[in-house]
Amino acid sequence: MIKKYSLLILYTSLFLQVYAQEVSWRVLMNDPTISYYEVVAAFENQTKGKDLSKIKGSGKFQLYKNHYDKKVNGKGYYSERQARNEKMKFKNSSLAKSNSNDNWQYIGLDAPLLNMTGMWLGRVDRVAFHPTNSNILWAGTPAGGLWKSDDTGLSWNLISDTWPNLAIGDIIVDPSNVNNMYVATGDSDSWFFDSYGIQVSRDGGQTWHLKNNGLQDVTQIYRLVIDPSRPHILYCATEIGLFRSQNSGENWSKMTGIDGRINDLELHPSNPNILHVAVTKNRGWSIQGDKNQTKSRNFDFEYYRSTDTGSSFAPINIGFESTSDESDDMLFGRIAVSPDNPNIVYIGGYANNGESLGALYKSEDAGLTFVEKAPRSTFTGTIGAWTMHLAVNPTDADGVIMGSVTAKRSKDGGIS
Questions:
Q1: CB neighbourhood size of 380 (10 A)
Q2: Residues 311-365: pLDDT tens digits?
């Protein structure tokens, strides 16, 4: 028996070595079974003698290298959860000291965002508004924490200074009880900062308590959604599926009938039994790497609809699935449902994370059928799939905004 296990370990090790040698470094960066050192070796071997400035994705590799270089263990692996546990041990130890009385003064840039000549400002991609007081809003960033403003954004106070990490994935406020707030931790756009659960407040954000019962295996949270008519019910869209809480975020359970990366979720505005779900399925790769890759299907994005609060889900084609042309595929699609007319549902997305064209689809029967609207040349995106956003005017179903780094607005339901 011991001999069999030894052979299995040997074969697994040899396979991983061959895999790391043959597969593109772009693929290896996203494979948690491959060590940091093997990724670096693959990059160096595959780009040897080439101009790195002309290699697509080399900048992303440098970010990867800078992030992990001093953090991996001797075998080249890094655990965000292990690092977080060590931070918490230090925080609770006698060595930790409060910095509340330290005399620090901000000396950074104060120029308004739109007046900046540079492009290297941090992302602020989550904003939540107080349901009854328009002066109060919260902003979340992928690496800068949770902030609150009491004066419509003129000044801000940092809330999450003592949290294990400063990555924020989403923010929601209970519309029926503003004391209840839920904040998804972790960067929803990348793997740099894992989620460690949901921070919950029962006093309007004065104090926070971590809730992750049922979410221990989750590393990315893309959306949090609350049922407005039954605010004790919440949905959590993650990289390993859709989760639901039926006791105001205290406990979570994974929903069946739908798998994959749930990168967006919307409820029907007047009938929360209806769920609109955006799912990204992982592509399959052959061991030969990029040039000989094989996909499990010719598209990554799938749209699902439920009419029974998620007890069952029905897949619905939106149009691009019938072709074998990869240029009309969609990756990490987004959904927008009109509060003004809940029968109007928009789905938008880009073909990939590089320079790609985007597509906008519209349904007028609450997500049962879709028609492609503006031509794909309307939307051009740099890292389009990652920075993709879609929104519909809450008082006008024909007003829609879609884009990536740059956004475009339509006032006629996506026709122009």
A1: 17
A2: 999 999 887 766 666 666 677 789 999 999 999 999 988 776 555 677 889 999 9
Tell me how far the alpha carbon of residue 30 is from its chain's centroid.
15
Beta strands in 317-414 (DSSP E): 331-337, 345-350, 356-363, 371-372, 380-381, 389-392, 400-403, 407-410
CA 148 to CA 230: how far, in whole Å? 26
Q: Check: CB of residue 196 under 8 Å from CB of residue 237.
A: no
Do the Cβ atoms of 284 and 275 come closer than 8 Å? no
Residue 74's contacts (CB-CB under 8 Å, 6 or more residues apart) are: none
One-letter amino acid at 250 equals E
DSSP notation for 50-93: S-GGGSTTHHHHHHHHHHHTTTS-TTS---HHHHHHHHHHHHTS
Q: What is the pLDDT of residues 141-160, one digit of tens each?
A: 888 899 999 999 888 898 98
Q: Which residues make Cβ contacts (< 8 Å) with residue 212, sequence separation at least 6?
A: 196, 197, 198, 218, 252
pLDDT tens digits for 212-258?
999 988 988 999 999 999 999 999 999 899 999 999 999 999 999 88
| CB-based burial, 331-342: b 16+ in 10 Å, e otherwise | bbbbbbbbeeeb
Helix, strand, coil % in the chain, rounded to nearest 5: 20, 25, 55
